[in-house]
Structure formats: C-alpha cells, structure tokens
Design goal:
Helices cover 36% and strands 18% of the residues. It has 328 residues and is α/β, with parallel strands linked by helices. The strands form three sheets. A six-stranded mixed sheet has the order 2-3-5-4-6-10, with helices on both faces. Strands 1-9 form a two-stranded antiparallel ribbon. Strands 7-8 form a two-stranded parallel ribbon. The chain is globular, with a radius of gyration of 18 Å.
Length: 328
Amino acid sequence: MKKNLLILICAVVVMTSCNSEKNKTTSKSDTAKLQIETPDFSADSAFSFVKSQTDFGPRVPNSEAHKKCARFLKESMEKYCDQVIMQSFNAKTYDGNKLNCWNIIASFAPEKEKRILLAAHWDSRHIADHDPIEENRSKPISGANDGASGVGVLMEVARQLNLKNPTIGVDIIFFDAEDYGTPNSENIPGDWWCLGSQYWAKNPHKQNYKADYGILLDMVGASNATFYHEGISSHFAPAIVSKIWGVSYRLGFGKYFINEGANTITDDHYYINTLAKIPMIDIIHQERNSETGFYPYWHTTQDNIDNIDSNTLEVVGKTVLSVIYEEK
C-alpha cells in the first residue's frame, strides 16, 4: 500500500457515526439474525502462502524474484480455479523506468453472470522510504504485510472455494506494480501508484466485464490490525461496507473491523470504482495514532514474515468467505 491522503470525508463520518449508533444495541428478537455459520479457513495455510511469496525476496517488477513469484502464483491458482489468465503489460514509472508486469486473474465459474471481484497486489515496494534507518531507505522491502498478506488470504480463499463451490461466480485478481509510486521525499505530478489496477480497469480481461461489487485486501496480516471504513470505500460503495462490517460483527470480529470512518486512501479500488465503474471497497489496516496512518513497519525493511500474525489472516479470510457464501 501506498499513499495516505489524510482526508476525512465529512459525509462519510456523519454516516458512519449514525451507523455506529444503530449497531450499538441489538434486541433479543434479533439474536437469530446475528447467527452465522463460520466457514472453514486455514490460518496456517494462509500464512504458508504469505511466506512462500516472501521467500522469493522482494517482488519488485523486473527482478528475478518477481518472475519466480509470478510463476508460483499462476501455478498455485491453477490448482484451485477454473481459469487463470496472465495479463501482461508494460508500465512507465515516475522515474522513467519501464516495468514488465503481470496482472494474475483467476476465476471460478467464469460463465456465471452474477460475480464478485476479489483483489490484492502482489508486488512489493522498491524502496523502504519510511525506514527509520536512513541507509535502508533505498532498499526494496519484503512486503510481507503490504502485498503478500492480501494475496495469501485470497489464495486460501481460493483453496476453500475449490472445496466448497460458491453459488456465484468469483474472480480473484492479483494486481502488479501497485507499490512503485513516488518516494516520500518527492512530489511528482501523475498517477504513479496502482499501475496494474489502472491498466486492468482500462483493459479488463473479458470484454464488457461486470461484477456486482469488489473487495480489495491490503495490509491484512499485522497483529491486532484495525480495519475502519476507508473513505473511498464509503463514498462509492457504502452498502458494501455495511454488508462486510456487518458480517464481521456477526462472526465476532468487531475488535478488528471497527465501525467508524477513517482516512481516504489512494489504492487499487479507486481505479476500479472510477474507471471500471465497479463498486469496490478496501479492507486496509489503518492506525489513528500512527504518524503515517498505517502500521509501524509500513514501507520499511521490517515489513517481513516475522511480523505477520496468522490470527489476523484468519479473521479477514473468514469474513470474505462468509460474504461470498451468503450471496445467492
């Protein structure tokens, strides 16, 4: 993940506050409605999928680790999904580099009209520009949380969907070149973040592709993560935010999914909403008392496998699977 705009949308805050008040009390007559079947989801398997990515090293586009990880993701998803497409594209970066990239698109029941789109980015940042140690700031990061965690959760989601087929179509996209944006110290005009989702939104893998809505996962593996109502999500898809946070509440995950508004984040979902016109929300870890607005190891060399908590992976994975299985 990339750029925190540090903007609160007033309307979102007001709406969220109202929703928070409504959700504080639940009558006894509603007890039955709050019951929900918890789907199978292996935290150990999800953690293993995260580690497999980080074992390649930083997955910076044009690197050998990037190529090896792309092959691993493709071959892994082919075990579970009905169809896997490697969408190759070239991207120009803020510093004039040309990146060779792949969006990896895996589908269940591609023939079905009713669909949900799930996504995460699989590349890792080329520089640790927020590292507290100055000499580390030009080094690439492992991106265990920022990238690999969302992909790992969705890989385990795919494994579970293969065991228990959903009644609807599901597409999973691993976006590339999400995190190759401008350094913290520079302000270069242009849309330099989320290059893979920008490309896919303009060039979907299927002509006239449609999905009812989308769910983006970003930074979903840190201990005690807090997922607030992100601003763009609440602006473009408030009903989907309510649906997902409601499911997490019924699952008992209110400690993680906080029913309050938070900052607006430039992330892949922005381009899916604005260019592809698919309402997509972002489940993303934000911290209100952090200087950056994110977890302490964001864009540092400490974003590694040692700081991944399988409990958080499980919370997010079970929430996403429950949302999918509730769709008819």
